[in-house]
Amino acid sequence: MEVARFAPSTTGVAHPGTLLAALLAWLDARSRGARLLLRLEDLDPERCRPELAARLPRDLAWLGLDFDAVEPQHENAGRHADALDRLAAGGALYPCRCSRSRLREDGEKAPDGGFRYRNVCRGRALPAAGWRACVEPLRAALPAGRIVPFDEGGLDLAQDPAREMGDPVVRRRDGAVAYQLAVVVDDAASGVTRVTRGRDLAASTATQVALQRLLGLATPVYRHHLLLLEERGAKLAKLHGAVGVDALREAYSPRALVGWLAFACGLRERPEPVAPQALLQDFAWDRVRRRDRVVRWTGRALELGD
Question: Is residue 62 over pLDDT 60?
């Protein structure tokens, strides 16, 4: 059986972009008879909050989306540590003294919009007591060479991640395991075969495939879909104060909001109320819009731009 997952961060309440990503992941999985996991990405000690992790499954259930299992990511600390042990044993793990301000000063942009790391700390040794005794961030040295991940929607994911992105941080200065490592370890442990997610994460795919290869893990099939954007062109995000699910629940019934999301992504010609199950009847990815959509919140309703 195929296994899929939806993996939102628990750094804020769900907004329209979160809900669209959840709906598309749900439609993809249920249309294939795949097992669907809800992974709550709650590893960031600075931004993740337990009360937000607790409410995300409830908000998605209100929308009409069901999951076969719910997995708080912090419960996977043992497997994350095992992966760091394996990277260290293979000579790929090293401490990095470079700060974020140093990367900004270098000014070299990476494909994901951040700043490229030039691998300047490669060759630095771990403490004699091992990576657990390290107080600096840890990076994984990626093998050189071009990686060409497959995207089911035809998106070009080809990249030389070691050169274009730089070696990724795999454990942060505060001791938290970083996203790039946690996501590949947890996907593999859960047997994930399909990853449906927003196009904002496409540039990370080659790095994740490189880590999978370092760890001897299987690579799932990827599909990256459109994003809902704010009027300034950035992705709708909790950080930018995108309208949250509480306000949406006051303005829309679950079926009405699903209908609006289906209209926004091209699955319906009009924003008419519909249940997620009804969308399964004729769901196909070739009916999903490829271009991103601008979204405005009027205070009472969602509006679409181009």
Answer: yes
pLDDT at 63 over 90: yes
How many residues would you count in the chain? Answer: 306
pLDDT single digits (tens) 82-117: 999 999 999 999 999 998 887 787 768 889 888 899
306, two tokens:
């181009």
How far CA 296 is from CA of 81, 242, 256, 293, in Å, comes to: 42, 9, 17, 10
The runs of H, that is alpha helices, within the chain are: 16-32, 50-63, 77-89, 100-106, 161-164, 179-189, 205-215, 245-251, 254-264, 276-279
Report residue 133 as tokens. Answer: 């005794």
Is this structure's pTM higher than 0.90?
yes
Q: Average pLDDT over the chain, rounded to whole?
A: 94
> For the chain, give me the number of helices (H) and strands (E)?
10, 11
Structure tokens at 31: 């249309």
pLDDT at 113: 86
> Burial letters for 258-271: b for 16+ Cβ neighbours within 10 Å, e otherwise?
bbbbbbbbebbeeb
| Integer CA distances (angstroms), 220 to 137, 153, 232, 274, 305, in order | 28, 14, 33, 31, 33
What local confidence, expressed as pLDDT, does residue 241 receive? Answer: 53
Residue 281 tokens, joined: 């009847």
DSSP one-letter string for 136-148: S-EEE-PPSS-B-
- Whether 248 and 16 have beta carbons less than 8 Å apart is answered as yes
